[in-house]
Structure formats: C-alpha cells, structure tokens
Amino acid sequence: MDLFIYVFAALFSVINPLGTIPIFVGLTTEDTAKERSKTSLLTSVNIFVILTICFFTGRYILQFFGISIESLRIAGGLIIVTSGFALLTGSFSKHKGMNERVKDDAQQREGISLTPLAIPMLAGPGSISLLIGMYEDYSLTSEKLITILAIFAVCLSTFLMLKSAHYIARFLGASGINAISRIIGFIVIAIGIEYISSSVMTVLGITFSHQ
C-alpha cells in the first residue's frame, strides 16, 4: 500500500490534471456534456497506454541510445523541477507549449484527446522519465503490478477531474485553481530535486569507488 500511495502521489503531482482544467474548459466550451465526457475518457485512456508502454519499454530505449538510468533521472528531474516552477509562477500552459497557435490548431481538430491533452499536457517527459526510473527501482513483479495499478488510478482520477472540469472551474474559479496548482508545484519541485540529488550522489559514489 505504501508503494501504491507513493507512486500515485508522485505521478499525480507531476501530471497535475488540475492545471489542465482551464485548458480543457477553453478547448471544449462549445462541446456538449456527452462530447466532453468522451474526450475525457479518450484522454485518460491515451495517457494510460502511453505511460504503460513507456514504463515497460523505456529501459530498452535507453540502452539503444546508450543513456544511463542516472542520466535519465537527472534530465527528468530537471524537467520536473521546471514544471514545478511553471506551476508556482502561473505559466504552466506556456511551459507545456500551449500558445495561441497551438490552441487555434486544437480548436480546428476533431479530436483533442491525444494531442494536445494527452501529449504533451499530461503524459509529458517528466512523467515518462519518472516511470522509467521506477521500472529500474522496482524489480519485483508484484511491485510492477502495483505501479501499473497506481498509473490506472491516476488516469481514473484524471478522467473524473476532466469530466467535471467545467464544474470544478466554476466552483474553484481561476484563483482557486491557481492556489492549489502552486501547492502542487512546490511538491513537484521537491520530487524533481530528490530525483536529481539521489542520482548525483549515486554517480559520485560510483566515481569515487573506482578511484
């Protein structure tokens, strides 16, 4: 249960579906409730498929490019930290590449569940690198199953939040969402720094052990 809670909390914070609510509301303003529900479901399914595939195949991609797991964690940690700062400064949408040009393109698409919602808004490089690192950390089959269950739980939570996005936006308002996002941003920064510091200590330990 501790592993499930840890993976869920870390992944949910990095994905941050709450920060996506204003964007989702803006992109689905003219849609019916049924269409918004369908978009929410497809987005969550896409996220689950993307994250699960990356979780199991990430290590082989790293091996193909000759990238060490510690290098990935440091790079991923930097991405996670910058995402956290974006949440703290209120520039989350811009950080995720949601400029006016991208918004206009999204409005013209028939479906927005894969892009820009699933990629890069939710299943971005930060969450992907986090899961690849977890695959290396949790070698037991039971641990991997728990991680997959946590990914599913995060995707289910994302679906419920996106489906209720218009109600949440009305209830919390822009200021409420911004305040909660700042708190989540602080947690995300802490997760990223922990990733970076532990990886740097591992690299330094390996370096000194060879001297």
Describe the overall structure.
With 211 residues, this protein is mainly α. Helix content is 87%, strand content 0%. It is built from ten helices and no strands. Helix 3 packs across helix 7. It is found in: Cell membrane. Pfam families: MarC. InterPro entries: Multi_antbiot-R_MarC.
Tell me, what's the shape? globular
- Count, helices: 10
Give the helix proportion (percent range): over 70%
Class by SSE composition: mainly alpha
Q: Beta-sheet strand percentage?
A: under 5%
Number of strands: 0
What is the radius of gyration computed over CA atoms, rounded to a whole number of angstroms? 18 Å
Name the poorly predicted regions.
Answer: none
Q: What is the CA-CA span between the terminal residues?
A: 41 Å
Biggest β-sheet description? none
Rounded mean pLDDT is 84
Q: Give, in order, the helices and strands.
A: HHHHHHHHHH
Topology:
Layout: H1 2-15, H2 17-27, H3 33-65, H4 69-89, H5 92-95, H6 100-108, H7 113-122, H8 125-137, H9 141-163, H10 165-209
Helix pairs in contact: 1-9, 2-9, 2-10, 3-7, 3-8, 3-9, 4-8, 4-10
Protein name: UPF0056 membrane protein
Keywords: Cell membrane, Membrane, Transmembrane, Transmembrane helix
InterPro entries: Multi_antbiot-R_MarC
Keywords:
globular; 211 residues; UPF0056 membrane protein; single chain; transmembrane helix; mainly alpha
